[in-house]
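I'll show one example:
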Amino acid sequence: MTIPFRKTVMLLAFSALSTLALADTPARVGRIALTQGPVNISSEVGEEATAALVNWPVTTSNQIVTQRNGRTEIRIGSTSVRLDGDSSLDVIELDDDKLRLHLHYGSLSLRVRNAEVLRGLEISTPQGLVRMRDVGRLRIDAERVRDTTNVSVFEGTAQVDGGGSSLSVRAGKRVDVHQDDVRTALAVRDSFDDWSLQRDARDERTTSDRYVTTEMTGYEELDQHGVWRDDSDYGPLWTPRTVAAGWVPYRDGRWTYLAPWGWTWVDNAPWGYAPSHYGRWVMVRQRWSWAPGRNIGRPVWAPALVGWVGGNNWNLAFNDNGARRNAPAQGWYPLNPGESYVPGYHLPPEHLRHHNRHARPDYRPGRHDGLTVVGLNQFVGRGQIVVPRAPRPVLTPLATQNIPFGAPPRPQGNWPNRFDRDGDGRPDRNAIGRVITTPSNGAQPFSRRDGRPSDNERFVRTPPQVLTTNEPQRSLAEKDRRQREAEIERRERDQANERRLRELETDNRRAADGQQRQREADLAERRREAEADRQRGAEGERLRTIESARQQREAEAQLQGQRDASNRQQAERQQREANNRQLADRLQRDADQERLRQLERQQQADRQQQAERQQRDGENARRQQAERQQHDAENARRQQAERQSRDAENERRQQAERQQRDAQQRDAQQREAAQAQARQAQQAQQAQQAQQAQAQQSQAQQSQQQQQKQAEEADKRERAREQRQDRRDNVQQQIR
């Protein structure tokens, strides 16, 4: 092996190790978006599972298990992963470019909206591997039937590898994968798919995608719980609708220790995921509002965008069962967009630039708005810290004037030193306790007007300050001396960094040349392998075509049997509906006849009353002409008595009608009972009853016509009598 070749191999290995080191802290982390029933999650293999909470982070090596009556939804940006009851899912790999899942057993529904996610997305089961080729929606059932995986595609196209075959499955199709066999059928929906569709419908109505990218996990909850507006200083601002008076960000929730990031915030509010892990909080018009920044593509996740203060050198008074005791305190506050975020874990420079793209080196916060303080002893182990239940100290203006900068405390125990990844015995450049300042040449760190770093600025710069966790209080002279020493150390380190960068760029160029030659050799080898694979694939394609034709014939026979069964069921259903319609028509005819009889009786009574009323009115008119002045009072009493009698008559008639309706209802119930007992006999007599009903109806119509004629003749006679009486009256008046 030649020396240049050995150097090339070493450079390639160095580049690979550097890439792996940067991949330790991905910029993409999922969340538990919904839990129904018992749902458990474990962080590492072998760790004890805990109950999954809404907004719990989901990342590599997580295992999510649902019990028989449980369901859950996992959101990774715009991608939705849902589990039905009695299911187990492993997150094999989740980083910036890959999402690899393994479904041990149960049912999984997957919805992908962004085509960029498809390149690194795959779901494995004990029988095969599934990849999506287009955006859409599919469902995977593993081990619901022993040694079988079912893949149903509802939208888009999927590639299914398993059972010795590789199939492209279109929308509306299903594939059943066994250990050595693959079968196709039609996709069928059930209640789990309907539930998934209802959850998907929310995303179609969202408006938050106008202000933030859909790859920001948790964006779908913002519309329902807050209001968006544009601000001239901060850009888009989101304000929660219903929060308690005195509400402060990063106060209603819990801290949990999540590797490799450290202490991670889990908010109790259903909308609290995106505002806790992206963007900054600002106080505008005496209200807290969330400023995500301009929509600039893929966001970068953070465990909590807060500044830490306190530690062992900051003692406060705590109320302990009515007594006060002094103890070390730890505090945090939401970072303003102008403040720099200093993570306590290794972070690629481009990710850190994303977090601090709006930070200003000259920004000096006058106070820490939204400061939350608990006892330092809360951060002893790696257990959860429920902030609302933690003891709170008594904060005085004097105690908050000179708060020392701090860092999130590490749990006690022999944990790996994640702040010293290069192994030099000192914290890395981005770690807490190191100095991060502007270049030594005096250039302005942020040369663009929007506050973002220019292209030739390699590192994130913050105001010169030393952040330590346990620095005791010293005199001003001692502090000045330490600052001068830190400035000298910073300049030496910056010069060493520049030398290392130049050497690294030279090595990278050499490595790139070696990689190019290696890629060309690999390309020639892949072409030869592709030709051999093409020949093998042609033979396999012919065999798959024959097998597919056989399966198609079986599917068509099965489909024909299903259609025949469906036709028989439809014929039986139509017969039952016809019988029900006949019975309903007969009952309707009986009811119509009864209403006609009741209407006839009502009309007859109305005509009789009208005749009596006309007769009484004529007599009253004649008596009034002769005795108007003498009998006014008597007429008033008589009219009142007549109204009372009519009211009583109407009341009696209404009561009789109610009794008649009750009797009719009882008769109808009795008829229905009799019909239920003698339905077969009645079916044989339907034609005869129909004829009898028609005859009765015709008789009723004839009798009604006769009654109408009699009433008309009576009206004519009455009008003739009134005309004769009017003529007599006129003659008598003329005689007078």
Q: What stands out?
A: The CA atoms of residues 340 and 679 lie 85 Å apart.
